[in-house]
Design a protein that fits this description.
330 residues; five-stranded mixed sheet; 4 helices
Length: 330
C-alpha cells in the first residue's frame, strides 16, 4: 500500500474509525477498573532524624497517616498494614524553625513484585518545628517510697552516678534541672541499704539511656529526738549535819536529746538533778551549779536554769523538856 492508498483508507469513513478507537479505549478502561481492587490502612508515622536536627514539640508530631492501596483483584488479599513503613526524614535538614517534609511510604519487598501497585497517602506533607540537637548531663534525684522502721530515719541518699545524659532539642535539654529515678522502696528499713535504680523520664522529643544502672545507697540512722520534762525535783547532797537549806525545795525543767526508742521509755524519775553543797562550811547565800545526769543513750540538751541560789543556815537544835521525875524527855 502506497502513501496515497493509505491516505484514502484513513479518510474513508474516518468518523467510524474514531468511534471504534474511542470505544476500544473505554472498554480497556472499564476492564481495568473492574479488575482493580483497593484497601485502606491507618499506619504509624515515623521520623528519621539521623542528622543535626530534631523535632521540638511532640504534641505537633502526627501519629498516623492514611493509606489507600490499589492493585489488581486478588493481589491485595494478603496485603496488611505491616507491609508499609511511613516516615518523614529530617536527616538532611540544616535549618531550624518550621519546615515542611513529604511523607514517604516504603512498601515491603514482596509488594514490589506486584504487577500494578498504587499507593496514596494522606496527608502527603507534614510541617514540623525542628531545632539543632543537643545533650546535657542532668542531675538525678532519688524517688523514695514508703517509710523506714519506727525509730529510724533517712540521713541521706547517695547516687552513683549522680547524673544522666539527656539528648534532644538543644534549648529543651539545657532547661532541665533534674530527673527522677525509678522508685526506691524503703518500707521497714532499719539499716543502710544499696538499691539498683534507673532514670525514670519519658519524653517523645528527648531521650535518656534507661539501661544505665544507678546505685542508690539509702543511709539509715536511728532517729534523734528531744523530750522535755517539767518540775523535776532537785536533790541536795553532801550537806553538813549542822546545816540546812532554808529556801528549798527546788525543781527544774529539763530537755533531753537521744534516740527515739530510748526517749519513748524514758520517765522523769530516771533523770537525776543534784546540788552538791559539800564544800559549804558556814551559813550564807550561795550560787551553786546544777548537775543533771541522763541515762545511757541520752544527753541533757538544756535546762531551765544552770545554777540555783541556796540559803544555808544552822540547823536548829531542839531543847529537851524534863519530865516529872526530873529526867529529860527525848
Amino acid at each position: 500500500m502506497n502513501r496515497k492508498q493509505f491516505s484514502d483508507w484513513v479518510l474513508k469513513d474516518w468518523w467510524v474509525k474514531i468511534i471504534c478507537f474511542v470505544a476500544a479505549i473505554m472498554l480497556s478502561y472499564f476492564h481495568h477498573v473492574q479488575t482493580i481492587d483497593s484497601k485502606k490502612f491507618v499506619i504509624p508515622l515515623n521520623i528519621h532524624s539521623e542528622g543535626v536536627m530534631t523535632p521540638v514539640a511532640s504534641s505537633e508530631i502526627l501519629k498516623n497517616v492514611k493509606l489507600v492501596v490499589r492493585s489488581e483483584n486478588g493481589e491485595l488479599n494478603s496485603v496488611t498494614e505491616n507491609d508499609f513503613n511511613a516516615f518523614i526524614s529530617i536527616t538532611n535538614e540544616a535549618s531550624s524553625g518550621r519546615q515542611t517534609f513529604p511523607v514517604i511510604v516504603q512498601p515491603s519487598a514482596r509488594l514490589m513484585l506486584l504487577d500494578s501497585l498504587e499507593i496514596k497517602v494522606e496527608p502527603a506533607f507534614v510541617s514540623l518545628d525542628v531545632q539543632e540537637k543537643g545533650f546535657a548531663y542532668i542531675p538525678l534525684e532519688p524517688t523514695i517510697m514508703g517509710e523506714v522502721a519506727h525509730g529510724f530515719s533517712i540521713e541521706s541518699v547517695e547516687l552513683f552516678p549522680d547524673n544522666v545524659k539527656v539528648n534532644g532539642p538543644k534549648d529543651l535539654v539545657t532547661s532541665l534541672t533534674r530527673i527522677q529515678t525509678t522508685r526506691i522502696q524503703v518500707d521497714g528499713l532499719k539499716e543502710s541499704k544499696t538499691f539498683e535504680v534507673y532514670p525514670d523520664y519519658t519524653n517523645k522529643v528527648m531521650s535518656t539511656d534507661k539501661t544505665v544502672k544507678i546505685l542508690a545507697t539509702v543511709n539509715v540512722i536511728e532517729s534523734i529526738q528531744e523530750k522535755s520534762f517539767e518540775s523535776i525535783p532537785v536533790e541536795i547532797v553532801n550537806l553538813h549535819q549542822d546545816f540546812e537549806v532554808s529556801n528549798g525545795p527546788f525543781t527544774v525543767d529539763v530537755t533531753i536529746e537521744g534516740k527515739l526508742l530510748t526517749l519513748e521509755n524514758l520517765s522523769a524519775s530516771k533523770i537525776i538533778c543534784v546540788l552538791d553543797v559539800g564544800e559549804i562550811q558556814e551559813e550564807g547565800d550561795y550560787q551553786l551549779n546544777l548537775k543533771v545526769n541522763a541515762p545511757n543513750g541520752a544527753k541533757v540538751l538544756r535546762t531551765s536554769t544552770d545554777n540555783i541560789s541556796v540559803k544555808v543556815v544552822k540547823r536548829k537544835v531542839q531543847k529537851h523538856k524534863p519530865n516529872e521525875e526530873g529526867e529529860e524527855e527525848n
